[in-house]
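Can't paste images in this forum, so I'm doing it all in text. The chain is below; anyone willing to post the predicted structure tokens underneath?
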Amino acid sequence: MTLFSNSLHQISKKIIVGSLLCFGLSTALAAETTLQDLDFQRSPQGHALLLLEFSQPPVLPKAQEVAGSLELTFSNTRIQEELRNLYSTHDFATLVSSLSLDQEDDQALISLGIDKPYSYTLHQQATQLQIEIAEKPGQAKTETRNSGQRFQYSGEPMSLSYQDIPIRELLQELASFLDLNLVAGDSVQGNITLQLKEVPSDQALDLILTTQNLASRQVGNVLLVAPAEELVALEQQQFAARQSAQATQPLVDEFIRINFAKAEDLRNFIMGESETPSSNSSPTSPASLAAGLFNQGEQQESTTSGSNSRFLSDRGHLRFDNRTNQLYVRDTPEYVERVRTIVKTLDIPVDQIMIEARIVVARTGVSDELGVTWGASRTSNPSTSSFISERGRVGPGERTEFESTGSGQRGISLDFNPQAGIGFGFVNGNFLLDLELAALETENRSEIISQPKVITSDRNKAVIRSGEEIPYTSIDEDGVRTTNFRQAELRLEVTPQVVGDNQIFLTLQVNNDSMGEETLNAGPTINTNAVETQVLANNGETIVIGGIFTSQTLEAEAKTPLLGDIPLLGWLFRRSFQSQEKVELLIFITPRMLNNSLSQPLQSASD
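Text version of the structure:
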């Protein structure tokens, strides 16, 4: 009996051990996760998205960053045989160049080839795991949202790795990291699984709120989190409450003195297109201003409702007075203070700029004259006639000049003239013989400097000119004479614009005209030197904005036919003239900003 009971006990023990082994094996097989499908996409932001579909909610993988790749290891996970492969993802134009899936014992290995610095996020929803690969913050700070707008994440990078954590606890940790106070409504519920590494903190908050259909508003250092629809409804209620408070808030009157600008210009800026003066009541007239001050019943009826003005309430009014250059505003204290802030910002003195121009015209001329001139004459009555002889020679501009060479009845003359050369003459009765040797060199230099100056304010055109009106007479087809005038003046026209960094942008037109030669019927000609340009110059810097260089050479020769062509002796019967003239025009501009520190606004009674 005892032997039988012992045998029965051993058999039952083996059965129990076998049952436990079978149960453990079945439990292990049942707990194993299978990767059933995958999909690779490019997000609207240009990020790489890897979507993995499992047979049951997976456990977050172990991530390891290796040079040029990201290795993900899923424990107790099996990849279906047809998915084990090496994929090329170059066609998607993302940071991920390749994707590899492999199986090692009970571990699933996924490797993503990445060429550039990156950051990644993991997001689990039911049985799907989403892996997003983006360029590392600092390499490309701009992200593109689904709306197509550009958004820049600038928060401090942070790493988060949680599985099934309550959203309220996660928001509390984020607020602590951002050094913000957190207010979360009762509707903020649920859990979330995520793994973020080196992701900007504001991007992490955005991702968490988006996946949970939440929205946030930050006021100072307080972060309010609530469901998106509740937050929108709350803002609408607050807006309605503010509108109701404004409708019952008492109005105040305020006079604002304008110092540098025009009251009418500021009024037009504040009101925009909301009000246009009617023919019956002009806002500049004293009657309309008095009506706005004392006839409050009429004032309340004339509102800015439906206007484009954003600086006044629906019950607000704004008038201006040209005589005293003041604005009158009637509105709630909040909007009156807003108008005062706008006026204080805009009513400032503009920059004053002095523009100085220097126009330099330099002329240099050199002329050479060399040759021999012969002259001879004879008279038929030597007893009664004296000799008066003229000699012709070639002069500047190919003109023939005549000069007297000698007079008398008998004798010899010798003349030294620095402008004509050496002259020799012989007079005997009725015969005159003269000879002139010319060796002349002249040089002249001249310089004309014009220096106009003008002062103007920023972005305002200034013109300064000095010259003369030249009259001339013209005759039409009917023979009627008409006197007209032509301008020959020195003119500087400039529009400066201060562009910051102590630089000035100039739109310039400079003219330096003078009267030229007279014409027969068309009057005098005008010699024009002008430049029109746009330049950028530093404050106090002198720059050359234009220059013209002209050179003119003139050569002339006069000789006796046949005799002037004889070799060697021919120079006794030739005369040559050479001249060269150079003209150089340079225009210099120097802009200078004037100091406005002494300009102080007048204090009004309201101040």
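The mean pLDDT is 75. The chain has eight helices and 35 strands.
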